[in-house]
């Protein structure tokens, strides 16, 4: 079974949150990272997101439409019989992944699992709050647990 680590960045910790970026990292190397240039607005972002998350983005170079991001995500997930997607905050990340995929269904053979505290052993300053970097950190911390 292929194991992927999921992280997202979004506008705020509310039920009205909007996806800003999403990463899936395979510890063996392949990665999918998307930054959305649409579907969210600066005025919907929390102060934390404005100060910490947004300055790390490169929207002029990496920003995608939702359709482009959906296509990239589906291409990344295509062809694997069984995939386990792991997140340390599944209640926040999983709905955003499914929303990005819509109207396409989740490809068959994909299951999700939450492992709380994957980054708990790190100092706050070691967690960049960047979807790709955080997903890589989760994969590293998972491997260290053996």
Automatic annotation (TrEMBL):
Gene Ontology terms for molecular function: nucleic acid binding
Protein name in UniProt: Uncharacterized protein
Organism: Pseudomonas fluvialis
């Amino acid at each position: 079974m292929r194991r992927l680590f999921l992280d997202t960045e979004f506008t705020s910790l509310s039920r009205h949150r909007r996806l800003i970026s999403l990463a899936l990292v395979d510890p063996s190397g392949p990665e999918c990272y998307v930054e959305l240039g649409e579907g969210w607005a600066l005025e919907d972002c929390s102060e934390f997101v404005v100060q910490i998350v947004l300055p790390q983005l490169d929207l002029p170079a990496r920003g995608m439409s939702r359709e482009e991001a959906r296509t990239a995500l589906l291409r990344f997930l295509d062809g694997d019989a069984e995939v386990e997607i792991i997140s340390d905050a599944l209640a926040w990340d999983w709905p955003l992944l499914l929303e990005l995929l819509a109207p396409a269904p989740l490809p068959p053979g994909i299951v999700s699992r939450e492992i709380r505290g994957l980054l708990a052993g790190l100092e706050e300053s070691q967690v960049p709050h960047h979807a790709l970097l955080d997903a890589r950190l989760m994969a590293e911390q998972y491997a260290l647990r053996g």
